[in-house]
Structure formats: C-alpha cells, structure tokens
Design goal:
66% helix, globular, 158 residues, mainly alpha
Length: 158
C-alpha cells in the first residue's frame, strides 16, 4: 500500500524530532501486547493525545485562554472522524477527563464526577488508541485515504 511513497514516509518517520519522540514511545507502549491492563495504560494514551494536540495542533479553537483536555480530544475526534470507526464512537469525554485527572493527579473523586475503572476504563482506552494511531499516521505523511485503508485493515484484525 505504501511502496510508492515508502522512501518519503520512512525518512519522515526517522526525522521526527524531540517533539514527536515521547508521543511515539507512548504509542508503542500502548499497542504492545500485555497480559494485564492498568490505569497507567490509560494514562499513556491520554497523555500522548494531549501532547500531540499541544505540540502539533496549537491552532485548535480555544474557548478559554488555554485549550482544555476535553477540547483537545474533541478536536482530534473531529479531525479523524473521516474514519468510520472514529466517527461512530460513542465515548464520553467528561468521563475520560475525570478519569485522567483522578488517576494522574490523584484528585479526590467528586460526588458528581464519573471516573471509569476496570473494564470501563479499558473500553474507554481502546478507541483513544485508534485516534492516537491516526495522529501518528497523519504526522508521518499519510493522507486521509491511506489512513482510512490502514485503519480498516487494523480494525479487521482486532
């Protein structure tokens, strides 16, 4: 699928600078096969998405002085919604944000804030991985059609 653009893509991949390096490390860590899932796995994916949005999409529309995690995730979801799986996601961004704050900053659980754990946290993480993969593919130089083809092949294997 990429043989005509392989040279350009591989050069791009190996020329990523320190801005992209931690995001790539987090992506690789998130897709490695593991026997267990824990909150760290969720945090790796959310942190990589947040880092990607901050470093590579600084022009996302801002409602506040600083763009919120929820706004970043929503913008990334919209950017990659040409992928049917992403477009059809039914994820609650408030739960993702609440969970990220709870597990990352050890904030106390608020009575009205839903924080995911266990299988629910795992299920929230999986579509976020798909969005992260799309982010990296996009930054590598894949166009929308190529990303769509790759994600269709990826989804058929999972």
């Amino acid at each position: 699928m990429i043989k005509n653009s392989f040279e350009v893509l591989i050069r791009k991949w190996y020329s990523f600078d320190s801005q992209m390096a931690p995001i790539l490390k987090h992506l690789i860590a998130s897709i490695k096969d593991k026997n267990i899932f824990d909150t760290g796995d969720f945090l790796i994916v959310v942190q990589a998405l947040e880092g990607y949005a901050t470093r590579f999409r600084p022009d996302f529309p801002k409602k506040n002085k600083l763009i919120t995690l929820k706004e970043q995730l929503e913008s990334l979801w919209l950017e990659f919604s040409f992928v049917p799986f992403i477009r059809n996601l039914n994820i609650d961004l408030d739960i993702i944000v609440n969970s990220r704050h709870y597990y990352s900053h050890f904030f106390p659980k608020k009575a009205n804030a839903h924080v995911a754990d266990g299988i629910e946290l795992y299920q929230l993480t999986q579509p976020l991985k798909i969005i992260l993969i799309c982010c990296v593919l996009s930054e590598t130089g894949f166009d929308q059609q190529s990303i769509l083809n790759i994600m269709n092949a990826y989804k058929s294997r999972t």
